[in-house]
Design brief:
With about 280 residues, the chain is an alpha+beta fold. The protein folds into 2 domains: about 130 residues, Alpha-Beta Complex (endopeptidase fold (from Nostoc punctiforme)); about 140 residues, endopeptidase fold (from Nostoc punctiforme) (Alpha-Beta Complex). The protein has 7 helices and 11 strands. The strands form 3 sheets. It has a 6-stranded antiparallel sheet. Strands 1-3-2 form a 3-stranded antiparallel sheet, with helices on one face. A hairpin with a 4-residue loop joins strand 2 and strand 3. It is elongated and about 60 Å long.
Length: about 280
């Protein structure tokens, strides 16, 4: 039951960015007539039964096993695991959810941050207490961000991404550091400030401050750098915040807004949270 309690305590916070160029939400049609009622009726009939990892009933279930069997009762075949179920369905904004739809959480064994085609970034609410940058208490972050980050780095990553996600849709302004507009390095600096860490102001200075992370080992909350239109591979002119899955949050250029972008053509990564000499607020 401990694992079940962990999921139940998870929760999720959805932050939408309808202005993002990547947000092309397709309309989600309703379930077949009567299917939602059958899904809910089956699920309700299992209330009180114990959690068992890998179980699909009839006497015990894990989370995705219950979902799969409930849909089977409605005559619909869906995949077995939560990850496969997430990938199988058409993701929708929380405001469009209907009875019988599936609701997903990072959980204790999932990823901390994900973006759906419904323009949402979801953060596990157990990553640091109350989504705050409380680096002195990182117990809620254990196992949520990749294990290669230590406990303090996990909390920093959560706070950095939460701040950046809250700025989605705000306009780009050269020299901007918020609260109403940002340039790329201004967004990064302020996101780390929200996590209690002071990092340099410009992308070139941020790149130099390091520490560098080999490509393929980057984690959510790390910084990703690009030459950009006004920089070079040695002195990058653009920077974003890694989300994972090949995605980042950035303030891209004049006329655009803070948004989720695909990483492509990067020159490298750094992990400010791993810099032992960095100043802490």
């Amino acid at each position: 039951m401990g694992a079940a309690a962990g999921y139940a305590a998870g929760g999720a916070q959805a932050i939408s960015a309808p202005g993002s160029a990547l947000c092309q939400q397709q309309a989600l049609g309703p379930l077949p007539p009567g299917a939602a009622g059958k899904v809910l009726a089956y699920s309700a009939a299992q209330l009180g039964k114990p959690y068992v990892f890998g179980a699909t009933g009839p006497d015990a279930y894990d989370c995705s096993g219950l979902a799969m069997m409930a849909y089977r009762a409605a005559g619909l075949a869906i995949p077995r695991t939560s990850q496969a179920q997430w990938a199988y369905g058409r993701q929708i904004p929380a405001s469009q959810a209907q009875p019988g739809d599936l609701l997903f959480f990072a959980g204790a064994d999932g990823t901390a941050f994900s973006r759906s085609p419904g323009c949402e970034i979801t953060l596990n609410s157990r990553v640091c207490p109350a989504q705050k940058a409380d680096v002195s208490d990182s117990t809620g972050a254990t196992g949520v961000v990749q294990a290669t980050l230590d406990a303090r780095q996990r909390c920093v990553a959560a706070a950095v991404i939460l701040y950046a996600a809250e700025q989605l849709g705000k306009p780009y302004l050269w020299g901007g550091t918020g609260p109403d507009a940002f340039d790329c390095s201004g967004l990064v600096m302020m996101a780390y400030r929200a996590a209690g860490l002071a990092i340099p102001r410009t992308s070139q200075e941020q790149w130099s401050a390091g520490p560098r992370v080999p490509a393929g080992q980057e984690q959510p909350g790390d910084l990703v750098f690009f030459a950009g239109s006004d920089g070079t591979p040695q002195a990058p002119g653009h920077v974003g915040i890694v989300l994972g899955g090949g995605l980042m949050i950035d303030a891209p250029y004049r006329g655009a807004r803070v948004r989720v972008d695909v990483m492509a053509g990067e020159v490298g990564f750094t992990r400010p949270a791993g810099n032992t000499g960095i100043a802490r607020h």
